[in-house]
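Dear all,

This email documents one entry for the complex benchmark we are building for the journal club exercise. For each entry we list the sequence lines for every component of the assembly. Then comes the predicted three-dimensional structure of the complex as a C-alpha cell string, followed by one or two observations. Please use this as the template for your own entries, and keep the labels exactly as they appear.
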Amino acid sequence: MQPTKWLEQNDASIIADLGKLVGIQSISTDGEHQKELSHCADATCELMRSAGLDSVTVLKTGDSNPYAYGEWLGAPGKPTVFLYAHHDVQPVKGFEDDWHSPPWTLTERDGRLYGRGAADDKGAIVTQLGAIASHLKTRGKLPVNIKMLVEGEEEVGSANLQGFFIENKDRLMSDVIVVCDTENVEVGLPCITYALRGIVELHVEVRTAQAPVHSGMAGGVLPDAAIALNVILSRLYWDHKKLPVPGLYDKVRKMTASEKRAAKKVGGDETQWRKDQGILDGVDLALEKNVSPNEATWRKPAISVIVQEASSMRNKSNQVLPSAQAYVSCRIVPDQDPDEVYENIKAVLVKDPPWNVKVNVKPTAKLKWWMTDPTGPAFTAAQKALKKGFGVKPIPIGCGGSIGFVGPLAELFGGAPALLLGIEDPLSKAHAPNESLHAGDFRKLTASLSHLFDQLGDLPDGKVK
Ligand code: BES
Ligand code: MN
C-alpha cells in the first residue's frame, strides 16, 4: 500500500490521537499542571510507540518539564531527520466562556478542529507521527532515520532546551531539522518560514515609597508610581514613525527591494489583516509610514508592554500606589544584537524619571533572531514534498514570532538546514479562545511530511546541504 493511502484509511484514528492529546491540560504557563504535563509526555510516548518508533522514552534535564523522545535508525547512509514539536499549551483561564466548544475536547466544526493546543502544537506531534506511521505500517521501514523530540516548556521560553541539546548532543545529532510550529499565510497555501524574530524582554519597576498611603492624605504630595511608570512607558510611543529608542535601528538589516516586493505579495491586504487580527473599526494600524504589515513583522523591531501592574482591580481603594511594574518585550530582527538592544531600551526607561522616582530595569529574556537562505537540497526536497501534499507550490515567508532553539540547534548540528513547515493559518487563534487547526491542511501537511521523508531519502549521497 502507498503510505498516503494508509493515511487516508487511518484518518479517523489519527484525528482521535490528536483528540487524546488535546484532552490533557498540559499547561506550562502557570506551574500548576505538572501532573498533566507528565501525563501528556507519557501519552506522546504511547503514540510514538504505536507509530513504530524505537527507544521511546521520557527524558528530563534538571528541573525541566518532561520531553518525549523516540527514534528510528534503520536507514544507514541516509540522512537523519530531527523532528521537533511541543506538547505544552497555553492556559484558557479567564476566557473559558469565550470558547464555543469545550477547550479540552477536540471538536470538528466547518472543517476545523477546535481545542487548546490543536494547532499549537499538538497537531504537529500527530502530523509527524502520522507521516512516520504511513511508512512503517506499509513498508516496514522509513527512507530516512528519525529522531523525534517533543518538549514540554516551549510556551514558557524553553529555558532548559539548549542545555538539554548540549547534554545529549551525540544522541540527537542529525542532518536536517523539521519543525511544524509556524504559519501558512492562507488556508491551502504551504509556507516555508526562513526567518524568525528574537526577543529581548525587560522588567521595569518604579518605586516611590514604602507602602500605599491614603490618597486623601497624600494625594498631590506623594508621587504616583502608576502614573510615573506610564509616563516612562509613553516614551516608547512611536506614532507612525520609527521606535523612539536611540541606536535601536543601527544594526537592522535593510530589506532589499526584491525582498520588499516578495513580502508585499504574501498574504492578504491591510483590510484582510485588520479582520484576521480583530482590529476595531476606526482604530489605525500602528505601522511605520510606507512599511507593509509583512515587512513590519518579518524585518522590523517591535515593542509591546506585555503586562503592567500597580495594584489589582479587586484591591481598588483610595490609595496612592507606591510601586508599579511592567514587562516590556521587544521583538528583534537581523542583525540586531540582543545585549545592545537591551542597553538601548534600558537607557530610554531610566532616563529623567518623573519626580525622580526610583526606576529599576533588569533583563528577563534574550533570544536571538534566526534567518536562513531557503535554498539547497533539503529545501528543494521540502518544496517538492509540499507541492505534492498540497497540490500548490509552496512559498518562502518570514515570521514575526520566535522559536528560540532553531538557530542554536542548527549551529550545534554543524549548520544543519532547518525546515519550518506551516501548520497554523490566519484563523488558528493560537494562544487565544477557540484555537483551531484546519483539518484539510492538517491532512495535507501529514501527506507532505510522508513525501518529505521520501524526497530526503532520495538525495544523492544523502547530502542535505
Ligand atoms: N508557534 C509560536 C511561534 C509563532 C508565532 C509562529 C507566530 C508563527 C507565528 C510559538 O509557539 C511561540 O508562541 N513562541 C513564543 C516564544 C517565546 C515563548 C519565547 C513567541 O513567539 O512569543
Ligand atoms: Mn505558541
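Observations: The pocket of BES (ligand 1) is lined by residues 120, 154-155, 157, 181-183, 199, 367, 399-404 (CB under 6 Å). The mean pLDDT is 96.
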